[in-house]
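Lecture notes, part 5. Sequence design as translation. It can be helpful to think of inverse folding as translation between two languages: the language of shapes and the language of residues. The source text, in C-alpha cells, appears below.
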C-alpha cells in the first residue's frame, strides 16, 4: 500500500523537487483500498488460517495507511521507514518492497502479493510488474474480477478493445482495479480491534537493503523544475445574437485543438 498526499490538500514540492510527504495531510491511496478489500474477501473465503498483512513503505505518517488497513480488517501491519528511502523511484521502491515481502515470507509463506493498479499521486502502474520480477513470481495485473479455487486464481481484465480471462497458480503478484467493488469502511469494532493488532516497523538494515541503492541519488529519473499552476482566469463568453454562436464556438475549439 502507499501513503499519498491528500488530493484535496495544498500539495507542494520540497526544495529538491520531490513531493512533500511530511508537511501535507496524507492518507491510504484510494486505489490501494481496493487491493485491501480483495485481500480481505479472499481471507473470508479461505478461512481463519489465512493472514492478511498490510505493507507500506513511506514516511513517519505512512503508518496511518497501515492503520487504515488494520481497521478495515487486515491482521497485521508492516511499515518500512528510513530517511534514505526519500526520493526513491519505482526501481528502488520495488527493491525495498521485494525485500520486505521476502522477510515477511521467511516467517510465514507468502501465497499472494496484492497491489492496487496504481497510486493516486504518481499513477505509474508499473510497480506490481517490477515487484513480480524481483520476487521471481508470475504476475496478473489490472484485474477487474478476481476468483479463487484453492491455489488457482482466475481474473477478468477489461481493456478498451477486449475482455481477457486469465488464470494463474499461487504464489503470484496480483494487481486489481477500482472495478473490483467498493472497499469497506472501518467499523467502530474494527477501529478498536486495530489498536491491538501487531504492527512492526522495519528499517533498510532490517530487510538487508543498502542505503546507496535507494533515494534520490540512486533514482534513474529526476524532476528538473516545477512551477505552480496558474490561477484560473475568466472564460470567454460566446453570444448567439445572430445565429453565429455555433460557428464561433467551433472556431474556438479548433483554435485550442480540442477538435
Amino acid at each position: 500500500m502507499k501513503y499519498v498526499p491528500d488530493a484535496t490538500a495544498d500539495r507542494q514540492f520540497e526544495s529538491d523537487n520531490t513531493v512533500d510527504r511530511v508537511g501535507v495531510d496524507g492518507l491510504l491511496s484510494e486505489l490501494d483500498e481496493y487491493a485491501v478489500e480483495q485481500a480481505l474477501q479472499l481471507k473470508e473465503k479461505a478461512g481463519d488460517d489465512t493472514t492478511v498483512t498490510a505493507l507500506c513503505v513511506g514516511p513517519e505518517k505512512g503508518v496511518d495507511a497501515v492503520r487504515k488497513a488494520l481497521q478495515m480488517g487486515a491482521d497485521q501491519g508492516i511499515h518500512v521507514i528510513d530517511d534514505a528511502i526519500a526520493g526513491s523511484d519505482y526501481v528502488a521502491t520495488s527493491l525495498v518492497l521485494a525485500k520486505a515481502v521476502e522477510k515477511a515470507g521467511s516467517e510465514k509463506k507468502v501465497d499472494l502479493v496484492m497491489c492496487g493498479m496504481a497510486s493516486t499521486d504518481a499513477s505509474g502502474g508499473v510497480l506490481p510488474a517490477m515487484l513480480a520480477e524481483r520476487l521471481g513470481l508470475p504476475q496478473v495485473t489490472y484485474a477487474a474480477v478476481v476468483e479463487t479455487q484453492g491455489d488457482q486464481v482466475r481474473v477478468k481484465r477489461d481493456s478498451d478493445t477486449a475482455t481477457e480471462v486469465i488464470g494463474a497458480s499461487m504464489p503470484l503478484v496480483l494487481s486489481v482495479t477500482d472495478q473490483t467493488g467498493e472497499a469497506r469502511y472501518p467499523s467502530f469494532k474494527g477501529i478498536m480491534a486495530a489498536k491491538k493488532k501487531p504492527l512492526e516497523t522495519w528499517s533498510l538494515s532490517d530487510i538487508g537493503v543498502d542505503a546507496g541503492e535507494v533515494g534520490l541519488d540512486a533514482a534513474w529519473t529526476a524532476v528538473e523544475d516545477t512551477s505552480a499552476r496558474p490561477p484560473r482566469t475568466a472564460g470567454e463568453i460566446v453570444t448567439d445574437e445572430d445565429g453565429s454562436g455555433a460557428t464561433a464556438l467551433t472556431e474556438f475549439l479548433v483554435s485550442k485543438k480540442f477538435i
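The translated text above is only one of many valid answers, since several sequences can fold into similar shapes. The mean pLDDT is 91.
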